[in-house]
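W.,

You were right to be curious about this one. When I first looked at the sequence I had no strong expectations either way, so I just let the prediction run and decided to look at it fresh. Below is the sequence, 185 residues in total, followed by the output.
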Amino acid sequence: MNYRMQYKGISIYYAESLGSISRDLKDVKPHIFNTVPRLLEKVYDTILGKGKNLPYIKKVIFFWAVRLGLRYRDNKELVSHPDVIARYQKEVNKYNQELGDTEKIQRFRLVCEEWSPDTGELSFTQKLKRDVIYDKYRNLIDEIYQVPGKKNGHHLIELHRKTVKGLKEGLKQGLDSMRKNVPRI
């Protein structure tokens, strides 16, 4: 099998040891990972062990997610499942009780894609790239902000972009003005 993969131009990497597999996988970021079941059982046990050491609420959510992961193999199927949506709605309702009327989450949608720097939605410092998200999920955002008889929520996004751009330009002009008017000593 190795020779066939090499013939096709696929790079092959081997782990230094059982203890370094996690680090090796992070370094290589493989698209295909061939292994024996014994190793996967060790990885699974390690993940569960870390989950057992989490604080209570995180532990409950962690094992709930593990159970769902064992039942569903596709994220698209998972995020559209009524039980999953109901669980998120329960959490949103709980936190909405602590928020003012204008701060409450009224509608939300779950997406099946993971967000990461590799997929473009996050920067390498794990900050949201709002413009990328707005462009990629424009229809979903419009659906969330859709109110019968009113414009879609897309105008809110454009307003946000214009406001941020205007603030940046205003700050730049103010700083430039201050620099010019500060007396030199």
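Here's what jumped out at me. The chain has a mean pLDDT of 79. And, maybe more interesting for your project: Residues 154-181 form the longest helix (28 residues).

Coffee later to discuss?

I.
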